[in-house]
Write a structure and sequence with these properties.
Blueprint (H helix, E strand, L loop, with lengths): L1 H14 L9 H37 L4 H32 L11 H35 L1
Helix pairs in contact: 1-2, 1-4, 2-3, 3-4
Length: about 140
């Protein structure tokens, strides 16, 4: 599940986010609305479910393997940061974009796009780090 969440963010960052500044206002609104419509509901389920599963793994590992436990805790913390960025920064901007049209886009749209882009990059890399630490925790358990 951690890989699925990371994949959604990484895929968007790798294929689209790095090029957002090349799109016109109309293209930006269209692309934004399309992506929001595609991921809003699935991610509302996937991210919390991922955190619940990660917390369960942390709890199960506490007495078995301290090294993996700490790696899982770090992974959980980073995914929690990813969720906080998503809910605290990205979703409010997405909610604004959903109301825009090419004709009604606000004058500060480029500033909002820049903020969204910067925080999307940050959450992409916190989710990648989370996946990395989770993987290290799994490998540590397998080794023992």
């Amino acid at each position: 599940m951690t890989a699925l969440v990371t994949g959604v963010f990484w895929g968007t960052w790798f294929t689209l986010t790095r090029s957002l500044e090349n799109f016109s206002q109309a293209e930006f609104v269209h692309i934004g609305k399309t992506i929001i419509a595609n991921v809003a509901v699935p991610m509302r389920i996937l991210m919390p479910a991922t955190l619940v599963v990660m917390l369960f793994v942390v709890w199960q590992t506490f007495r078995m393997n301290r090294n993996s436990f700490y790696l899982y805790c770090l992974s959980f913390f980073l995914m929690l940061v990813t969720l906080i960025i998503t809910v605290g920064v990205e979703v409010p901007i997405d909610n604004q974009i959903k109301t825009w049209t090419a004709e009604t886009i606000p004058p500060n749209w480029m500033s909002l796009r820049h903020t969204w882009n910067r925080f999307h990059s940050l959450r992409t890399f916190t989710s990648i780090a989370s996946l990395g630490f989770f993987t290290l925790g799994m490998l540590n358990r397998i080794r023992k």
